[in-house]
Design goal:
It is a single chain. The protein has helices at 7-22, 42-48, 55-62, 120-127, 138-143, 165-173, 180-201, 210-224, 236-247, 267-291, 302-315, 328-338, 344-356, 361-371, 382-393, 400-413, 418-423, 426-429, 464-472, 492-504; strands spanning 52-53, 69-79, 89-99, 107-112, 144-149, 229-234, 252-258, 318-319, 325-326, 449-456, 475-483, 512-514. By secondary structure, the chain is α/β, with parallel strands linked by helices. The strands form two sheets. A ten-stranded mixed beta sheet has the order 1-2-3-5-4-6-7-10-11-12, with helices on both faces. Helix 19 links the parallel strand 10 (449-456) and strand 11.
């Protein structure tokens, strides 16, 4: 990714590929006893961490490192199963970005970009470029080491990889609102994926669950040498942070949970909420098109332009380079990818316009960004990890028959996104692993936690923000009246509140609202 991409686009590239499913992780058991589980030993863990210079990570990602920033990497080992710590280990990859002009250091700001499946190592690099490129504010970079970690199963951390590229192509390219024969084919595809992952990993699949990863976060805290954790989690990262706060409230310094997920909602409620959220975001996009036709070549009726493109693709999809066909599935994922940021709206309008002219290249670019599909047709492990985590977390879900019924029901309520969001629940319907849900209770004993929500968020609809704050019991809500997924760092108002909390532990006395501009 080029350095010049702004932070909102950067985060879209990291998160958009997974966040259609991010809200679909399921509530787990609220009766866990954190004291019954082993925890890292602070002194031994910090001393054992070996950091090495790794400027090549930034060079590989964006062509260079940020000016005046050094990069160091480390790998720590955590138990595969925190309840049975003698049963082998997973590697957890860390990257630490440190500004040369650091002063009055507070500690480390640990990051997770969401997904599940997003790389915290990559995110730390992107955010280290500072406000000129949409990264973290200068004062935050001067007071903290920025530490990203790849959760277990993700990218550089004992990655789970069990879905063939051809099956991922079939998944993304499939009809988003299938008839019975197409639906049956998707059921068979989900079963084949589940069987393949089960054959590859067996009982280990359950160990990619969120609670296990939250316990890993305490090992990360120990590895960076902090007495208490300072954390910035986006989207699914809010679920990780909330789980951590319940397990280790005494180890929390400050948690910013941006793009909040309500851990108590089930897969059906979560999926329907996203269908509603994406419809809202698409309506906002179409309204923008009508109001700014000079920037939207598919104005004045963008909804009709997109639905017509989908219908035409069902009959005669446009072929691109190498004969790749822009099916309705790929077009819909291009739309979804663009709705994560307001800056993506113009890209979407241009892509649909080009498609109407017979050129699907921009549609594929947007969809591939979402899917983390490379030019060679090879995928990262983003979706392997996404499914593994979501399905390990899910303790119950709808049957195949119920999913088929919801497809029809939601199509009527949410014309563009209802059916696809219903069908997406097939991913876990035949997953072979045992399930291991996460706790869903108050973070008793934790300090105030800042919970951030965006009113126009399609992936984690705003309604979840006050619900998460209420569940934790110590949550303080910050509302951004803006568009897109996640809020920090977007505007001066949002930055002011979050920075004061991270640096000085100052929280608003009442829930705070920030205007869009």
């Amino acid at each position: 990714m080029p350095v010049a991409r702004n932070h909102r686009t950067i985060l879209a590239g990291l998160l958009a590929a997974t966040l259609v499913l991010a809200g679909c992780t399921l509530p787990g058991r609220g009766d866990r006893d954190p004291a019954a589980q082993p925890t890292p030993t602070d002194s031994a863990g910090a001393a054992a961490t070996v950091w090495r210079p790794c400027p090549e990570v930034a060079e590989d990602l964006v062509g260079r490192g940020a000016a005046g920033v050094s990069y160091e990497c480390a790998t720590i080992q955590v138990p595969r199963d925190w309840a049975a710590p003698d049963g082998g280990t997973f590697d957890i990859a860390l990257l630490r970005a440190r500004a040369a002009d650091q002063r009055d250091r507070i500690g480390s700001l640990v990051l997770n970009p969401g997904g599940p499946g997003g790389s915290g190592v990559d995110t730390a690099v992107y955010l280290s470029f500072g406000p000129a490129f949409g990264g973290l504010p200068t004062e935050v970079l001067q007071r903290f080491d920025v530490v990203g970690f790849d959760p277990r199963g993700v990218s550089r951390s004992s990655p789970v990889k069990c879905i063939p590229d051809a099956d991922l192509d079939a998944t993304f390219g499939a009809e988003p609102d299938p008839d019975q024969a197409e639906f049956d084919a998707l059921v068979a595809l989900s079963q084949r994926i589940g069987e393949g992952c089960g054959a590859e990993y067996g009982d280990r699949l359950r160990l990619f669950a969120t609670e296990q990863a939250a316990r890993d976060m305490d090992a990360v805290r120990v590895a960076v040498g902090d007495e208490k954790l300072t954390y910035l989690g986006y989207s699914y990262g809010t679920l990780l942070g909330a789980t951590y706060a319940q397990l280790f409230p005494q180890n929390v310094r400050a948690l910013v949970l941006d793009g909040a997920i309500d851990p108590r909602q089930g897969i059906v409620e979560s999926s329907e909420g996203q269908a509603k959220g994406f419809e809202l975001a698409f309506d906002n996009f179409t309204r923008w098109c009508a109001q700014t036709p000079d920037r939207c070549p598919i104005a004045p009726d963008a909804r009709t332009a997109v639905t017509d493109a989908l219908e035409k693709a069902r009959v005669s999809p446009v072929s691109g380079e190498g004969g790749r066909q822009a099916t309705a599935g790929w077009i819909l994922y291009a739309v979804i990818s663009s709705l994560y940021t307001e800056t993506g709206w113009e890209e979407l309008a241009g892509a649909i316009d080009d498609l109407q002219r017979g050129d699907p290249a921009k549609v594929f670019e947007l969809a591939d960004r979402y899917a983390e599909r490379g030019p060679d047709g090879h995928y990262s492990n983003l979706f392997d990890a996404n499914i593994a985590v979501n399905c390990a977390d899910e303790e119950s879900g709808p049957s195949v028959e119920q999913i088929r019924d919801l497809q029809t029901e939601w199509r009527d309520r949410y014309p563009l996104f209802g059916a696809p969001l219903a069908v997406s629940m097939l991913s876990c319907a035949s997953w072979p692993a045992q399930r291991d849900g996460y706790p869903t209770g108050p973070a008793t004993g934790a300090p105030p936690i800042l919970v951030v929500g965006t009113t126009g968020d399609p992936a984690t609809p705003y309604e979840q923000t006050p619900r998460l704050a209420e569940m934790l019991g110590v949550g303080v809500v910050l509302t951004w009246e803006g568009e897109g997924h996640t809020a920090y760092p977007q505007t001066g108002c949002v930055n002011e509140v979050v920075d004061a909390y991270l640096i000085d532990l100052t929280v608003p006395t009442t829930d705070r609202r920030c205007p869009a501009r």
